[in-house]
Amino acid sequence: MRDQNKIRSNCAISNGLEILGDRWTLLIVRDLMFTNRREFSHFLKAGEGISTNILSDRLEKLQCFGIISKQPHPEHGKKFIYDLTEQGLKLAPTLLEFMLWSYETQQNSFIPPKILDLLQKDRKKLVELINQRKCLEMQFF
After folding, report:
1. Domains in the chain, start-ordered, CATH in brackets?
2. In whole angstroms, how large is the CA radius of gyration of the chain?
3. CB of 82 within 8 A of CB of 39?
4. CA geometry: angle 15, 66, 90, nearest 5 deg
5. Whole-structure pTM value
6. Is the Cβ–Cβ distance between 25 and 84 less than 8 Å?
7. What is the DSSP letter of 84?
8. How far apart are CA 91 and CA 107, in angstroms?
9. What is the pLDDT along the chain (141 residues), one digit of tens a residue?
């Protein structure tokens, strides 16, 4: 795991990419933000094909940087529940803009209709729902 105190530069984009700059990390954040996926096995079954070692690494990295929290599962002693922290929830406006950009510029990009409708008509309400940790039960594939 990278030492979060060592940075290459003071550039905000560079520093953000140190945490979120790979495909898998943002997909984990997406799942925590928009679906009810909260367990290790849920992320594995999300349909994106992440391997267990990559998933373990990214979850640890996100936890190390304070983007997610890891709590013992209330019903299964060997499992954990992951959730976005307040810092992680602050990614919502950025992820929404990124989704909309991709939808508008990349052929065959998909945004679930409920999210797209709120993005276009009431973005503030969508961010409120995310911040209230409301599961939007969305499928992205």
Report:
1. 12-131 (1.10.10.10)
2. 15
3. yes
4. 75
5. 0.85
6. no
7. E
8. 24
9. 445 556 678 898 888 888 888 889 999 999 999 888 999 999 999 888 999 999 999 999 999 999 999 999 998 888 999 999 999 999 999 999 999 999 999 999 999 888 899 999 999 999 999 998 876 765 554
